[in-house]
Amino acid sequence: MAQTRFDYAGSYPCLDRAVFRIRTTTAAAAILLLVMGCDLQVPDGGPTTQPAEDLVLVGTFDWSMPERFGLDANRDGRIDMPNTIEYVLNLDQGACAAGCRDATPSFTVILDASQVSLVDPAGVGFEIETYAWTIAENEAIVDSVVTDSSQAVVQLAEGVYDVTLEVGRGDATFSVESTVAVDDVLIVSIGDSWAGGEGNPERPGDPPLWADDGTTPDSAQSIAHDAAHRSGLAGSAQAALVVERSDPRSSVTFIFLAASGAGVVEGILEPDGPMAGSDGVERTLPAQLDELRDVMGCAGDDAAACAREIDALLVSAGGNDIGFAFTLGSLIALDPTLLVNPIYENLLANLFADVEQEIDQIPSIFESLAIALEQLRITRVFLTAYPGSLTYAAGGQILPCEEVGGDLFPGLEVDRTELELLETRLRQPLNAALEAVAADNGWVFVEDHVAAFEGHGYCGSDPYQEAGYAGNPFPDLVVPSSDPGVRWFRQAGESVQLQGGGGLFQPDRLATTGTFHPNELGHQAYMAALLAAMGY
After folding, report:
1. How far is CA 92 from CA 86, 95, 159, in A?
2. Per-residue CA distances from 390 to 358, 399, 401, 407, 419 (Å)
């Protein structure tokens, strides 16, 4: 019987999902054009004895990539944050002990033909006996797989592939083609405590539990997470989790290096001072960019020598470089009722004169960062603004806080006049300087969360009432509060309860480090702003 190849790429009702090719007789091909409006059904009795040359392929295949971020390998209820070169390159732990700088990472791709069917002109389905996959890139075959099931698992590097599925029944073969894009989104978070999630431990306690790497508490990465106070509730980590869960056809690799106390100079470019972990041992973390280059498999100063390109580098920095914590502490201590007014006014003027000088150094500080980033392959850099903590919502209005920080030490606080100075002479000028830095370097300035924070300041309503802070609800996401005036900042007494204080000879509320940082609700605003900026 004469055989021919019949190509169909039409828009008939029951076959418009497929672009298919079949080997059949010319007469059978003509018959197929008369049955495009059929109601396809697969009989309960399974395959029949219809001649294979009278069958037609319906449907097409799909593909997916298993999630890489949002896992919990050691089942401790915390998101795994491996921060290793093996994780970045998708290799087994320890595989790079002898070096992996020349490795090309590949990722698991699941090819799925479960929606592909063989039917006869009456719409009756028939069993597919073989599935043969051919994967090509730039017309060169890179892999081929033959199975008797509808799924095939392959390892592919990032890129776009032309994939052909040829299914067989008896001596007849039928094929369908599609394009498969393999994309693992690499997101990196560097910077300070606002990026790291300070004030939001994974599990509250004294000591609290912070992020881990999915192995053991005494691993190098878990110890670093603990010392840096990194939390999966941070806006950057939450954004990476949403990106991972948003598209089954891609995966996410998330590298988390932000640390409490870090600035651009001390922290990102150079090691910061010793940091005490939950065990009380002080450790000096490596400079964040040095660690990033290591986990990216970079060699020398040539960005092209890095094993991977960063899709999104998230940066929160500048506050520690201008001494924000010192300024805030000074305002709490400088109480006008305890000092002679001229002395108070003079101290206040000197304090903000120093702040202005520090802000003037922001362009040069970030110029050093921009130069250092040239040693990495980066698609886009996202620099985040700092939100304010000075207003609350009540009765449908946004009102100013009368004071903040009064819960740290009895009789001392940042009063309303000082809050206005903090806003107009520190936060707003700092954000303006950061926005100019972003514009000068072609970075994306992220600021949508700043407006969202209005009405949710330090003096807002209690977000927990009697329930208290339960920690990270992973694998679930944070549930937003319906209270329009709920507080998005961590207060001092709250921070002591969640992550402990300063020890025997230090007043807990002064020594605890979570105070004045965004809580998990505030980090949801960070998350939303980052997602919008990244296009999700």
Report:
1. 6, 6, 22
2. 22, 9, 5, 15, 7
* Helical H segments across 252-393, by residue range: 288-295, 324-333, 341-360, 362-373
Cβ atoms of 535 and 463 within 8 Å: the answer is no
The helix (H) or strand (E) run that includes residue 56 is: strand 56-58
Q: Are 468 and 484 a contacting pair, CB within 8 Å?
A: no
Number of neighbours of residue 411 by Cβ within 10 angstroms: 8
pLDDT by residue, tens only, the chain of 536 residues: 333 333 333 333 344 433 333 334 333 333 333 334 444 444 444 444 556 668 999 999 999 999 999 999 999 999 999 999 999 999 998 899 888 877 889 999 999 999 999 999 999 999 999 999 999 999 999 999 999 999 999 999 999 999 999 999 998 999 999 999 999 999 999 999 999 999 999 999 989 999 999 999 999 999 999 999 999 999 999 999 999 999 999 999 999 999 999 999 999 999 998 888 888 888 899 999 999 999 998 888 888 889 999 999 999 999 999 999 999 989 988 877 777 778 889 999 999 999 999 999 999 999 999 999 999 999 999 999 999 989 999 999 999 999 998 888 878 889 999 999 999 999 999 999 999 999 999 999 999 999 999 999 999 999 997 778 999 999 999 999 989 999 999 998 899 889 987 654 457 777 789 999 999 999 999 999 999 999 99
**For residue 356, how many other CB atoms are within 10 A of its CB?**
12
Nearest CA to 201 out of 193, 210, 192, 191 is that of 210
| Contact (CB, 8 A) for 177 and 125 | no
Residue 326, φ and ψ in degrees, nearest 5: -65, -45
**What residues are paired with 461 via a beta bridge?**
486
Please name the residue ranges forming H helices in 17-141: 26-32, 85-88
CA 181 to chain centre: 20
Cβ-contact 86, 92 below 8 angstroms: yes
CB distance 202 to 231 below 8 Å = yes
| H or E element, residue 243 | helix 235-246
Using alpha carbons, list the distances in angstroms from residue 240 to 196, 385, 397, 519, 527: 13, 19, 34, 18, 9
Which DSSP letter does residue 509 get?
A: H
